[in-house]
Structures are given as C-alpha cells and as structure tokens.
Design brief:
The protein has 484 residues and is an alpha+beta fold. It has 2 domains: 12-281, Rossmann fold, CATH 3.40.50; 294-420, no CATH class. It has 16 helices and 18 strands. The chain has helices at residues 8-12, 47-60, 78-87, 138-151, 186-200, 217-222, 245-256, 263-272, 292-308, 313-321, 343-350, 359-375, 425-428, 432-437, 440-445, 447-469; strands at residues 23-24, 30-42, 67-75, 103-108, 125-126, 154-162, 171-174, 182-184, 206-210, 229-232, 283-288, 328-329, 332-333, 340-342, 376-381, 383-394, 401-411, 418-420. Strands 1, 2, 3, 4, 5, 6, 9, 10, 11 and 15 form a 10-stranded mixed beta sheet that branches. Strands 7-8 form a two-stranded antiparallel sheet. A two-stranded antiparallel ribbon has the order 12-13. Helix 10 packs across helix 11. It is globular. The two termini are 21 Å apart. Mean pLDDT is 89; it is low at 1-28 and 479-484.
C-alpha cells in the first residue's frame, strides 16, 4: 500500500539537485556518503507488502551520486502463501508484482519513472547471488551485509531490517521453510553483524528495525557492539512503515546540499518521520547502543537490591502492572506481548516512596531511569485506542439485546526502551523462558531468575491467602503465545 503523508524527508527531496562532492577509493570506485542496505524479509504472510516496498522505494529514490541503495528481497512461493492465508482465515489474492516469483533476489535500487505498462514490475537491476537459505537464517543476513559493504563503499552505512518482529523472541520470520515457522533470534542477528564486521572491517552506524516490538532492552543490549544507533518501536507497527523511499530521498538531499547527514541526525530524523504517521508506528525511538552497558549495569544493581530487600512481592507486581505495556491493537491486546513493559516507567514506579519503602531500591530504580534517559537519544509516542468485545446481553425488560463493546483510549507512557516483565507463573515455567534466561541482558542482570522467583512468591502468597479464606483463588494467567 502507498503512504500519502509527506514527511520532512520527502519535502526535502523536492529541492533541485546540486553536484555532490565525490571521493574515490583505491581501484577507482566512488566512495559515497551513505550506503543503505535494505533487508526485506517477505518469505511469510507479508509477501505482498514486501514486494510493494521495493516498488515504493523505486518510486521515491534509489542509488544516486551520493547514496548507494542495495536491497535483498525474499518472497514466499504463491502456493505456500495461499495455503498460509487459508490457514489464517484470510482471503488470498495474487499481487502479480513482477510475476509473483518466489525465493530471494538482490538489487541495486534505482529510482524509476514507471509507465502504466510497467506498473507491476520491479525495475531495478538484479545483482549478485544470495545464498539458498531462508531470510530468517543469520548466514543469509551476514552474506548480504558483507556483499553490500564490500561492493558499495561509503563513509557511512545504514542497515534497514523490514519484516515481522517479536521483541526479545527475534524477527525476520520464514513461514515457508522446510522446518515450518522460523525466526532469527537477537543473538543470531547480532552474530550476522559480527561476521560482516570481521569480513569487512566496518560496521553500520545506524540499524533501523522496521518491525514490531523490537525496542527492547534485551535486543538493544545484544546489539550494543554492532552499531552506533538502533531505531525500533516498543509497540506493534503496521506495513504503513514500509514506504521507505522518502527517508532515503532525505539522505540524498542532504548530500546534494553539501551537508552530509550525520548518523545521529539521521537517527533522530527517522524517529520524527512518524510524527505525522502514527498509523505506521505508535512509538519509535533511537537508542545509543554503546550506552546500553550503563543501562544493564544500573538494572543489575536494581535487581540485586530487590533480591536483598524485604519488599512484598505484591508491591513489585503493582509496579510492573502500573507501567505501560505493549501488544496493543485496535482489536485488543495480544497475549504474551502484553507482558512487555516500558523500562523507565517500571523504574519510576519502583522509585515511588508510596509504593516501595526501601530507600536503596528506590535509589537504584532512579539510576535506571537516568540511564534510560541518557541512552535514548530521541523518542516518539502517540495516542492509542483499543476495543474489547465483552459479549452480548439483554435489557432488563427482555425486549432488546445489546453488544457490550468497551473502548479504551490513552497516550503511550513509553520512553524508548522496554523490558519483558511477565506476571504469570505458567509463562515463567514455559520452555520459552529457558531461551529468555540465556539472553545476555537477562543473564548478566539476574532478571530472569528474579522474575521467576517473583512469580513463585506471588503464587505461594495467593495460595496461602485462599486457604486462609477457605476457597481457591488463582491469579489470571497469560498463555505463552509466541507467534511474531
């Protein structure tokens, strides 16, 4: 789908071109200001939108004298896509984009003035040869990064990763793989970038995850050594974010004006691309990745203080429940993802003397809040609305039936970094928590062990209270739904 809102980057792109300054590396190849590497994983139910993303970029901007734009597009075979849509209860219609081919292709993206007859084509030049693995395979991502950085040299590199996202579970799914549903974990994503850095001696300054829920502390810490800035959303996004051409056009225009955009300025510009486009992302932040070390260290101190304190587990649970959660759509709240909480909001609740009576815990929580402020260089949060269907009822006189629909509205109390904070004994006992406990952020802070112990204490206290009252009471459970 095409996005019609005009961003600042798009407006800049309308200015007349000026001759850019160029440098040449040894061997005669031009070294441009920026190389933008687009990894568009559409070998899943997003296949139609991924294919359109390529066309949208071609329509707005591509490789110029100042900017290299290299893309790798993965597409699901149409037969598999039809089966997938049918299994999801969705209507399948082929897009007919570029012959609806399946597999992977790599492109040097160039701007196109497509004719009516070319409306269904991807017109950029096919280059290189991707490996024969899935887009969710880290070796596929590493191969693309190495190819792009070696063959298209530049002063700065940005990597754009577009697809489904599932927070700390990972991103870039392949639903048509031989083994079924697969996803690239944060550790695998980080490993792909490390392979590319080892092979090229270079790492990107900016990584933009155009995917849901990826602005988590767990993901950012895993990526702390792989780039300077991470762009991501704490909340679920939509395919409206796939219209990326105006952003690239803005990068090119800055160079045309003789003012190459810096990595930090680019990160902040991309965040504010969504000022007037909340349909794409309700939240978006730019994180200074090396500073995630300070976030981790401060959070570790907080966990140590919580473990040493005598604070009632119910008070900590109240602090968690009082912080902004995510997974919110107009249709309701996604289970599992609603256990992701805004980190600063959680810290602020734990620093509240009315809730927490331990001064050391409050001081440690305040330090976490300050660390988040120092790490998030820019942040955007919009309003949200969701609907809850409570079922049908009948009026007292019995003459009329009605449907009870509740509408919840608010403004996201989000500050750019989230953390997984499940309040569900069933969930913390699930197999997925083993994966979570192995993540660097979780392991190095002790958060995984603490949140497991907290849920056990809450369950034990609830059981004792129920026995004292002479009946059984259970905390509401959240099922361990993990689909990205």
């Amino acid at each position: 789908m095409l996005i019609t809102n005009q961003t600042k980057a798009a407006q800049l792109a309308k200015k007349p071109a000026a001759k850019p300054k160029k440098e040449a590396e040894e061997g005669g190849q031009d070294i441009k200001d920026w190389t933008v590497l687009m990894y568009i994983a559409g070998d899943n139910d997003l296949e139609p939108y991924a294919a359109r993303m390529m066309q949208q970029i071609e329509d707005k901007c591509g490789t110029t004298e100042n900017v290299n734009v290299v893309a790798q597009l993965g597409r699901m075979e149409q037969g598999d896509l039809k089966k997938l849509y049918e299994s999801q209860g969705r209507k399948y219609e082929p897009t007919n984009i570029d012959g609806d081919w399946g597999g992977m292709r790599r492109y040097l993206v160039t701007q196109q003035d497509r004719t009516e007859e070319q409306g269904d084509k991807i017109l950029s030049k096919v280059i290189g040869k991707p490996n024969d693995k899935k887009m969710s395979d880290a070796t596929t991502l590493a191969d693309f990064l190495v190819y792009g950085m070696k063959n298209y040299p530049s002063k700065h590199v940005m990597v754009v990763l577009a697809d489904h996202g599932g927070g700390w579970l990972g991103a870039f799914t392949s639903d048509a793989s031989a083994s079924g549903h697969s996803i690239m974990t944060p550790d695998q994503i980080s490993s792909a970038f490390k392979i590319a850095e080892t092979a090229t001696g270079k790492k990107p300054e900016v990584v933009d995850m155009v995917a849901c829920l990826m602005a988590t502390s767990e993901v950012a810490y895993q990526m702390k050594d792989r780039a300077k800035y991470l762009l991501a959303s704490e909340e679920i996004g939509t395919t409206a974010s796939f219209d990326y051409g105006p952003i690239i056009a803005g990068i090119d225009q800055a160079s045309r004006d003789g003012k190459t955009i810096s990595p930090k300025a680019l990160a902040k510009t991309i965040v504010h691309t969504y000022d007037d486009n909340p349909d794409a992302f309700k939240t978006k932040s730019a994180v200074d990745l090396p500073k995630m070390v300070a976030v981790k260290e401060s959070f570790k101190v907080l966990i140590d203080q919580l473990k040493a304190s005598k604070i009632a587990p119910e008070a900590v649970a109240a602090a968690i429940e009082g912080s902004q959660n995510f997974g919110i759509t107009e249709q309701g709240v996604y289970p599992f993802y609603d256990q992701i909480r805004d980190l600063k909001g959680l810290a602020e609740n734990l620093s509240n003397a009315e809730l927490i009576d331990d001064k050391k815990v409050r001081a440690a929580a305040k330090a976490v809040s300050l660390a988040v402020d120092a790490t998030v260089v820019d942040n955007l949060a919009h309003d949200y609305k969701r609907y809850e269907d409570k079922g049908e009822g009948r009026t007292i006189d019995g003459k009329e039936t009605f449907k009870d629909i509740r509408i919840y509205e608010g403004h996201y109390d989000s500050h750019g970094l989230s953390v997984f904070a499940p309040l569900s004994e069933k969930l913390v006992k699930s197999a997925k928590m083993g994966e979570y406990a192995a993540m660097d952020f979780t392991k190095e802070t002790g958060w995984g062990d603490y949140i497991k112990s907290l849920n056990q204490q809450l369950a034990e206290n609830a059981k004792k209270a129920a026995e004292a009252d002479g009946h059984t009471v259970a905390r509401p459970e959240t099922p361990p739904e993990t689909n990205a």
